[in-house]
Amino acid sequence: MAVGFEGPSAAGDGTGHPPGRPPVDKNGRSEVMANTSRREHSGHVHLAVALDGAGWHPAAWREPSARPRDLFTARYWVDLVHECEWGLLDFVTIEDSMGMQSSRRGILDDKTDQVRGRLDAVLTAARVAPSTSAIGLVPVATTTHTEPFHVSKSLATLDFVSRGRAGVQVRVSASELDARQFGRRTLAESHSTAAVVSQNIDSVSDLFDEAADFVEVSRRLWDSWDDDAEIRDVATGRFVDRDRLHYIDFEGRWFSVKGPSITPRPPQGQPVVTALAHVPVAFRLAARSADAVFTTPTDAASARDIVTTIRRHESDVSRLDPPLKIFADLVVFLDEDDEKAALRKDRLDEALGRPFRSDADVFVGTAGDLADLMAEWQSAGIEGFRLRPGAIPHDIEAVTHDLVGVLQDRSRFRHHYEHSTLRARLGLSRPASRYAHT
Amino acid sequence: MTDQARQIHLAAHFPGVNNTTVWSDPDAGSHIDFSSFVRLAQTAERAKFDFFFLAEGLRLREQRGKIHDLDVVGRPDTFTVLAALAAVTEHIGLSGTINSTFNEPYEVARQFASLDHLSAGRAAWNVVTSWDAFTGENFRRGGFLAQEDRYDRAKEFLATVRELWDSWGENALVADKESGRFIDDPDEGDFAHHGSQFDISGRFNVPRPPQGHPVIFQAGDSDQGREFAAADADCIFSRHGTIEAGQHFYQDVKGRLARYGRSPEDLKILPAATFVLGDTEAEAAERAVTIRRQQVSGPTAILFLEQVWNRDLSAYDPDGTLPAVDPDLTNPSIAQGRVSAFGDRAETAAKWRELAAAKSLSIRELMMEVTGRPSFVGTPLHVANQIEKAVAVRAADGFILVPHVTPGGLDEFADTVVPILQERDRFRSEYEGATLREHLGLGPARSPGKRRRLVGARRV
User: Fold this and answer.
1) Smallest Cβ distance to A130: which of B59, B87, B189?
2) Which of the residues A224, B28, B83, B185 has the least number of beta carbons within 10 Å of its own beta carbon?
3) Closest by alpha carbon to A156, among A437, A433, A396, A406?
4) Residue A341 Cα distances to A83, A99, A154, angstroms
5) Are B103 and A118 in contact (CB < 8 Å)?
6) What is the mean pLDDT of residues B84-113?
7) Buried b vs exposed e over A79-100: b needs ≥16 C-beta within 10 Å?
8) Tell me, what's the pLDDT at A40?
9) Which run of H or of E encompasses B176?
């Protein structure tokens, strides 16, 4: 029985070729990209796909190619991520929440006609990791109620089992429902994040401060082992050099954590931290704590504004890390022509009973037009796009087969994976531990 | 089925972070690289083992205020590694220790349900308690539980988790595209638990696990622990001792099952066991001595002694005699983060002095003598006989084997001992069932039964 018998592992697809779609140009000729330099990538865009159930449209599970019966199987998630890796995407995010999905914010509903239920995203990412070899894996993790010590070592372990491809999308929970399911603490009754923010209530700001503390603890724990802490020194009988292990001694309003981690320094040193941000308090969290941020512009102008806002927040918090990688989120419904795309979207909306709405801009059209939009927003300062497929697998395949092809033709996207870690792919170097003696 | 035909259960325990794990051997591999876990799990699966087991870490051990550096240190997160191992295995169960103190039931229920889905029904949970403030320093929950209260929390924790696993109907997932019905009932996942330890309610968001309930292990030796297991566990992870001790334990625990309406097969007793093999008995015995020396280095011997003497003994020579000074019985224990293996200090010290004097043992030799010996030492035939006998006379239902070195430490056992047991039809030659419950010969998990309908205030 071979390791990773299910699919590609370190050897790629078993043919000896590296993972991902074979580099082929429009005329079917194989294209060898040797010694490509940074200069040639200056127009390149980062591309990610956000995975959630059967797709971001609530009626997508009823589409002909949808696999709603498989949503809680490993096979489904492996297949989706394989497809994304074939498309050479930078990473996937995997949606998660502590509470049940609902058509209404902060309140449970009694619908039976939408996808209900989710598998834990970190464990899904871990399950998929050995069957993939290059694509980044970025599960959502809630920072409210959970233990930073546990989440930090889970992500470090995801980094080990994926050999340096782990990331996380941190998220707060302002939901009273979630609080009641954990039983730890109560929050303002029935307040959605947006509602509370607009009323400027302190508690949401607290949730984001807690998230910042959570990330700080995780980062310190990831650094709490020097890279060379393990010494296996037979002469003195020591497996580890305790001077290379560090207490983190974090004391904050919501938790104190002593450390060190029980898990050694991850392959990437620091797994990639991301956050979705719409409002100031979230931009601030990203500026303080994240490496990449997902935003929701509606056009090139708003994209430009968002970029400016984010740089200002970075300055406000005196950010020392490299500038945030700024992604734009888009929900996409892609087809070979505009009419087909519109028809499909309409059909989905009819099944839903109302037009589909999202916090992100909704794109309905062709891969070519989407690539045009992306170029325009890139000029406004957007460095990457996180695409939320309206229907799975249709819109994922449209991205990996059509959009990627168009972008490659325009020299906007890679023809093969170059970097083996997610950090490197995003242009981030591997940091030394903050505690290590130089 | 006669006693002679009783099927043996075997499992593989990834070597732990304690001194029985040898790291100084040239064959000793990484304890953190995923490849080590893959290797051991696949070896165990090739040998048709029931499950692979991984312990848990919550804080690095310390002694005299310093991080313990003599044993293997550094381990992955249990849930995450087990989920990844589901990708490189197909049949073998995936079992892990998760404590009930520095966790909350809603999250643990989600994680085990997810692991069970992602492994198609192979998840198992070894429920343990933790209670010390030392460990608590890493957690929000912090503080500590009074030792007496830990079982109360554990019991209610497990009961609550079971309620969450039961909160989705068995046929909840309809997924009918035509009719638009995704789930059967609008209330799938509804739960409410109002107890002394937990007061939680809502809607659990993971469908019923493939096994219904993942397999539950319990590892307590005390009376309370045995009762907990008899009431609510599927397997007991026990300590290995003599055949007689095993039989007593077996009889005692299985005897408690009837009170709970359970039969003897409903609870499997699996002691942890170590082993040393050799082509001849003499060779095996020699290897055992070599391994003992690797497991009890000079510094390790001093460390063990310190745990009983409760003093700084770093000035002593491990190849020299025991300290003339007596143990410090007044101050609190200097060892943190683990249960003392050595019982009452004054009593133990006295016994050790006697033994050392009688056999002229140095500190190191004494520690080698009094700390754990391998459970099975001998040729593959001899070891197979011992295992078969232990199960036949009901001293155990099988064993959880702990290799002393990773990742290849199980290879020889898998290649030489298992085939003998298979040949005798005492151990499976092929997997028959698909889930861990089936491998262990456990009945199906209780069905969710009639779910409570929550009335009133929860929804607008």
Assistant:
1) B87
2) B185
3) A433
4) 21, 32, 40
5) no
6) 97
7) bbbbbbbbbbbbbbbbbbbbbb
8) 43
9) strand B173-176
Task: Tell me the mean pLDDT in the region A150-176.
Answer: 96
- In CATH terms, the fold of domain B3-279+374-439 is TIM Barrel (3.20.20)
Which residues on chain B are in Cβ contact (under 8 Å) with A6?
A: 87
Can you give the CATH number for the domain in which A370 is found? 3.20.20.30
Least CB–CB distance from A263: residue in B76, B141, B174: B76
Nearest CA in chain B to A60: B177
| DSSP strand pairing (B335-336 vs B62-63) | antiparallel
Give me the percent of chain A exceeding a pLDDT of 90: 82
Cβ distance A126 to A163 under 8 Å? no
Q: What pLDDT does A347 receive?
A: 97
The pLDDT of residue B301 is 94
Are B138 and A149 a contacting pair at CB < 8 A? yes
Say whether residue A258 is in contact with chain B using an 8 A CB cutoff. Answer: yes
Interface test with B, best of A123, A221, A249 (most B CBs within 10 A): A123
Q: Is residue A399 part of a domain?
A: yes
Residue A434 domain flag: no
Residue A6 within any structural domain of the chain: no
What pLDDT is stored for residue B341 in this prediction? Answer: 64
**Average pLDDT score over chain B:** 91
What is the per-residue pLDDT across B423-451, written as a single tens digit (0 to 9) for each?
Answer: 999 999 999 999 999 999 998 887 765 54
Structure tokens at B330: 């007044």
Inter-chain contact B104–A118, Cβ cutoff 8 Å?
no
Number of domains in chain A: 1
Q: To the nearest whole angstrom, how far is the Cα of A112 from the nearest Cα of chain B? A: 5
* Probe site for chain B from A9, A79, A108 (most B CB atoms < 10 A): A108
Contacts of B207 in chain A (CB under 8 A): 72, 117
Per the domain annotation, does A212 fall within a domain?
yes
Would the pLDDT of A197 be above 60?
Answer: no
Contact indicator for B388, B426 with CB cutoff of 8 Å: yes
Domain that holds residue A93: 43-102+136-425
The ranges assigned to domains in chain B are 3-279+374-439, 297-370
Kindly determine whether residue A98 and residue B106, on different chains, have CB atoms separated by under 8 Å. yes
Give the angle subtended at the CA of A12 by the CAs of A9 and A16, to the nearest 5°: 130
pLDDT on residue B343: 73
pLDDT at B1: 44
Residue with tokens 């090139």: A300
Q: What is the pLDDT of residues A75-86, one digit of tens each?
A: 999 999 999 999
Cite the DSSP H helix spans in B393-439: 411-412, 418-423, 436-439
Give the minimum alpha-carbon distance from A360 to chain B in angstroms, rounded to a whole number.
25
Q: What is the pLDDT of residues A229-252, one digit of tens each?
A: 999 999 999 999 999 999 999 999
